[in-house]
Amino acid sequence: MNNYGLKQRVSTRLAFLAAGMAMSAWAPLVPFAQARTGVEAAQLGLLLLCLGIGSLLAMPVTGLLAARFGCRPVMLLSGLGCCAVFPFLAIAPSAPLLALSLFLFGATLGTLDVSMNVQAVLVEKDYGGALMSGFHGMFSVGGIVGAGSMSLMLWQDVSIAAASVVIAIAVALVMLAAGPNLLREAPAADRDAPLLVVPRGAVVLIGVLCMFVFLAEGAVLDWSAVMLTNNGMSSAQGGLGYAAFAVAMTLGRLNGDKIVQRWGGRRILLLGGLAAAVGFLIVVLAPSAWLALAGFVLIGCGASNIVPVLFTAAGNQNDMPAGLAVSAISTIGYGGILAGPGLIGFVAHAVGLQWAFAALACGMLLVAFSASTNAPAAGGGARP
């Protein structure tokens, strides 16, 4: 035991809050970026892919950096680097410069994402109880704060450049507040890890399960409005689907530590996976848009604590050092976010969006089924 204590737990929550603020604040800027650069929808999609590519390339090496140098320098450099890049997303005058800015933003954000999860795993393991859901809940809160603050400033006619600087300063201040109590050293086992470790054993299974959940979350983000409008809801109300999902997920995570502590990781995977699968089926089969909205709430509730449990499982497995395992499952899982929109679109074009959502229900059933295995992924989650 390292006796990290309350200060380290608070610093971890602040890091998750900062990351959520930075990521979500970019979303309201997308239409302005498209108008400024003059790109069409297809070109915009390629530009947005640069953010994901930057994250995907940075994630595999972050666990190694955290193991060699400790979480503190990696988190501070990536977090403050993210703040430095963010205003350029609002002022980049051309598509190539915006692509470069998005790539750098994605790389810094991906590095922060993995390193803060490495710290979260270490702090939770030292604490001896469930903390991961609360950490991820702060990321969701940060998402609400970041997107809401940016939207409010733009609504009040604050210039895009000024609003982006305000967000960057706010995120930087949160990171600096967290800084003094971030973990300076990784465990000896992680510091002695080899330079390159191919994911193996339970880590691969955990990563695949994360990919299913991230794919489901991305599908709700990208396609929930389409599902609701196809079911008779007006275009102006289409955003209610993701809003309901996001609120349910945030509330589930903020209360998740107590639930995980009481039920354990296996039950979270089983019941959460089943609830999310039923939610997707309700969305597919609902005779009205308002009943489908209830399905999105159920998806959010069910999925809310699955990823935190899986990250805890990554820290508890013995096939790889914890830091490298977190990097691996983050990379595999993030692949689901990148591939999700195109994959869902392809299936929807071929057989219909409802069948695509039915396939997502099957994916969540596989997550629930993993609870019946003996793999650490099924037993993730700290217990009393």
UniProtKB/TrEMBL annotation:
Residues passing through the membrane, by range = 45-67, 74-92, 98-123, 135-155, 161-183, 195-216, 236-256, 268-286, 292-311, 323-347, 353-371
- CDD domains, A to Z: MFS_MosC_like
What span is annotated as the signal peptide, if there is one? 1-27
Q: How does it sit in the membrane?
A: Multi-pass membrane protein
Note the InterPro entries from the entry.
MFS, MFS_dom, MFS_trans_sf, MFS_Transporter, Tet-R_TetA/multi-R_MdtG-like
Compartment list: Membrane
- Print the keywords alphabetically: Membrane, Signal, Transmembrane, Transmembrane helix
- Where does the record place a coiled coil? none
An annotated GO cellular component = membrane
Q: Which intervals hold domain Major facilitator superfamily (MFS) profile? A: 8-379
SUPFAM superfamilies in alphabetical order? MFS general substrate transporter
Q: Name one Pfam family in it.
A: MFS_1
> Which GO molecular function terms does the record list?
transmembrane transporter activity
Stated name of the protein: MFS transporter
Annotated source species: Duganella flavida
